[in-house]
Amino acid sequence: MVSGAKDDSAYLHVAGMVLQAISGVRATSHATRKSMAAFGTRKGQYMSATVEMKGEDMYHFLGKMIDVVMPKIKDWRGVKGSSGDNSGNIAFGLSGDEVALFPEIEVNYDA
């Protein structure tokens, strides 16, 4: 989810490009299904981007995440055991500073 996308769609576009650079898979944008006043969102507003990885791409991403990115994160508390489901899917989030630790992003971060 890209919280800045509710005011400016450029944030979502940049998030999609970052996801594509990290994963090597084209990102898909998703609109909200209903309005929520507490979050300040309206129905049909594009707020999130996802990628779906399978096979070798998934294993390369996971290896890079575990071997390169996670050791660089200060105060990393790990991933909760309850964040997965019975099908083998796992979900966790990273802040913008943590995403910048990926080698593909770190090279261009100064620009």
Please render the helix and strand layout as text.
Elements: H1 10-23, E1 28-31, E2 46-50, H2 56-72, H3 96-99, H4 103-106
Antiparallel strand pairs: 1-2
Share of β-strand residues: 5-15%
Looking across the biggest beta sheet, what order are the strands in?
Answer: 1-2
Mean pLDDT, all residues: 80
Our count of domains comes out at 2
Radius of gyration: 15 Å
- By DSSP (H or I, 4+ residues per run), the number of helices equals 4
Morphology call:
globular
Helices and strands: which structural class? mainly alpha
Which parts are unreliable, with pLDDT below 50 for 5 consecutive residues or more?
A: none
Helix content: 25-40%
Quick one: how many beta strands? 2
Order of helices and strands: HEEHHH
If you had to describe this structure to a student in words, what would you say it looks like?
The chain is mainly alpha-helical and 111 residues long. The chain has two domains: 1-52, no CATH class; 53-111, no CATH class. It has four helices and two strands. A two-stranded antiparallel ribbon has the order 1-2. It is globular and about 40 Å long. The mean pLDDT is 80.
Annotation keywords:
111 residues; 2 strands; 8% strand
Quick gist of this model?
This protein has helices spanning 10-23, 56-72, 96-99, 103-106; strands spanning 28-31, 46-50.
